Amino acid sequence: MPTSLALSELLGATVYDVNGVMSGRVREIALAPQDDAARVAAIIVRTPQGDRVLGPKLIHEMNGSIIRVTTASEDWLPLGSSEGYLLLERDLLDQQIIDVHGRKVVRVNDVEFFIERTNGHPALKIHEVEVGPRGAVRRLLKGLVPRLAVSALALRLTARAIPWDFVDLIETDPSRRVKLKIDHERLSKLHPADLADILEELAPAQREAIFESLDEEVAAEALEEIDPKLQASLVESLDSDHAADIVEEMDPDAAADLLENLPAGTSEEILDEMEAEEREEVEELLEHHEDTAAGRMTTEFLAVAPNATVEQAIDVLRSYEGGIETINTIYLIDADEKCVGAVSLAMLAMAPGGTIMESLATVPLVSCSPEAKEDDFVELFDKYNLINLPVIDAEGRINGVITADDIISLLRKKM
């Protein structure tokens, strides 16, 4: 008996009952992901009396074209409903899946199983999915060319397979996704830029289904990396309270840019659902023109008093909940709320705990005004090799910070 089989070989295989009578053909291979994400739960057989379900314990022998069963066909249970099953031909073949390891979207051409013996019965377990020409050729030539010839030809083709452990399924129906216990925990571990690329490759319905199932923080990080047009489409597909939860997790400047690209009514609904503090930050940024420093800055940054010690500054750093793009610098704010200096994270790391922050400040402090135009603050980044640029008003108060990420995004849009 072979140690592996392909789904394309199993579909249509002849099924014989315990008396050796040809009683039907394989119509589907079913998983029950809520019980086991890889092991086949049932083989569905089309018989003259209707579809029947064969559990693994009923199978005596299995190869690419023949399955022998330990009971009479009249004892096979009818298929009441396929609702709790993931049917591999219907739900997987020719469908898009996410290759988590390769960080891309691919289409399934075939499925490879390992055959394991459990209590004397052969049991199928998904090993990998074939996304290359090997699976396509097996399916295309099946029934037209002898099985052994098809197998020999397929072996000469380069396999392009993804281990089943690296496959993330896409289910657009939320209730079915929950019922089958399909989650996207592995997607959450990808870099936001890779996750954004994957979302952009999917069809709209699949994209929305995946995005809706993500944790708010993960969704926010991915959303910041997505093309603005798709950003708007994804957010508009959500109800306003869910959209607000995601927008609250975004950097304020990115959130403001997003809301500015949405219809006014949609933006207002999302703002109304947001927490007061986050809403005020975003509304403040929405008041500024996008092509000015104030329109590009984020209002999240680290600040301490000039006479604070390094140890105190580190405590502030540890409790910081803003975006990581701004933690390269700690700004010094005096009693009159004026920005009087900046200390790099590198200087902070090398100084003894009792060192006064003011003594570590970079001189001179490079900054720009809220009204500065794009060309002006981009030139400052280039001239001084900046990572962050504080935006300081006429009274000397820091309004926000422009990050290198903001500049890269700005320049990419102009390319």
Characterise this structure.
The chain is an alpha+beta fold and 415 residues long. The chain has helices at 7-10, 88-91, 133-141, 147-156, 174-179, 185-188, 192-201, 204-213, 216-223, 228-236, 240-249, 252-260, 264-273, 276-286, 293-296, 310-318, 345-350, 374-384, 404-414; strands at 4-6, 14-16, 22-32, 36-47, 50-54, 59-62, 66-69, 77-78, 86-87, 96-99, 104-107, 110-118, 121-130, 161-163, 167-168, 302-304, 329-333, 339-344, 388-392, 398-403. Strands 2, 3, 4, 5, 6, 7, 8 and 9 form an eight-stranded mixed beta sheet that branches. A four-stranded antiparallel beta sheet has the order 1-12-13-14. Strands 11-10-15 form a three-stranded antiparallel beta sheet, covered by helices on one side. Strand 3 and strand 4 (36-47) form a beta hairpin. Helix 9 (216-223) packs across helix 11 (240-249) and helix 11 (240-249) packs across helix 13. The two termini are 59 Å apart. The model has no long low-confidence stretch (mean pLDDT 90).
Topology:
Elements: E1 4-6, H1 7-10, E2 14-16, E3 22-32, E4 36-47, E5 50-54, E6 59-62, E7 66-69, E8 77-78, E9 86-87, H2 88-91, E10 96-99, E11 104-107, E12 110-118, E13 121-130, H3 133-141, H4 147-156, E14 161-163, E15 167-168, H5 174-179, H6 185-188, H7 192-201, H8 204-213, H9 216-223, H10 228-236, H11 240-249, H12 252-260, H13 264-273, H14 276-286, H15 293-296, E16 302-304, H16 310-318, E17 329-333, E18 339-344, H17 345-350, H18 374-384, E19 388-392, E20 398-403, H19 404-414
Parallel strand pairs: 2-7, 16-17
Antiparallel strand pairs: 1-12, 2-3, 3-4, 3-9, 4-5, 5-8, 6-7, 10-11, 10-15, 12-13, 13-14, 17-18, 19-20
Helix pairs in contact: 3-4, 7-9, 9-11, 11-13, 12-14
